[in-house]
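hey so i finally got around to running the thing on that chain from the lab meeting. sorry it took forever, my laptop kept dying and i had to restart like 3 times. anyway pasting the input first so we r on the same page abt which one it is
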Amino acid sequence: YRSLNVRHDEWFTVIESFKGSYPVTTLCSAFSIHRSSYKYGIKRLREIKPERLKEYALVKSIFRESNGSAGARTIAQISTHRQHPLSRYRAGRLMKACGLHSCQQPKHAYKRAAQEHVAIPNHLKRQFNVTQPNQVWCGDVTYIWTGKRWSYLAIVMDLFSRKPIGWALSFSPNSQLTGDALKMAFESRGKPKGVMFHSDQGCHYTSQQFRQYLWRFQIKQSMSRRGNCWDTEYMIMKTGNYKLTRAGIDYVSLY
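ok and heres what got predicted. didnt touch it at all, straight out
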C-alpha cells in the first residue's frame, strides 16, 4: 500500500484502522512518516469545519433537486452560479465523501458504418418533412431509472405531428416491448394503411417477432445505418427530451 500513489489522508486512515493490532510507531515506520505527522493528520481528519458542512449540504441539495442525475460538472456549475464557487474536481470529492453517484450512464462509442441493413434498407433517407399523418412512424427504445432498477420505454412517434402515438414500458428491452408500442400506435390511429416504420438496427426491431407485427399490420419497414444517429435524429431528440423531463431536471429552477 505504501508504494501506491495515494494521499497522506489515506495513509493515516490505514494506520488508524491497524493501530489496535500493531504499534503506531511500527506502522508509521512502514509508511515512512513521522508519528507527529500522523497525530496531526488524524486530528485534522476528525475536525469537521463549518465550511465543509455547508458544502456537503449544498451538494446534497443540488443532487436531490436533479433526482440523482447531476454529476460533478453540473453540481459545480450550479453551485458557482449560486455564488458558491466550486470546481468540478472539488464537487467530485464532495460527492464521493457523501456517497453520491450520478445515475447518468457513461457515453458509448458506437462503430461508425455507412452500410445499410442487409435485409431492411433505409427507405426514409432523412426525409423528415412528411406532408401528412400516418405516412412515416419512427420508433426508439430508451432507459429510465424508476427508483430501484432501470426500466425500458419504447415509443412510436408520428413524424408528421412529432408526437408519441404509442408507447410501452417494461423491465426488458425485448421485441415484446417494441411490439406492444407498435400495436398501441396502430390501434390508436385507426389501423391505417401505407405506413412506413423507421428505426435503428436494434435487435428488438430486427427480430422475427417484431417483423411479424409489421407484416400483420402491413407496415413497410425502414432502418437507419448502424452507428449513424442522424438517420434517426428526430426520434433521438424526442426520447432524450422525455428522459430529461422524466428525471425532473429543470435547469431554470435549479439556477
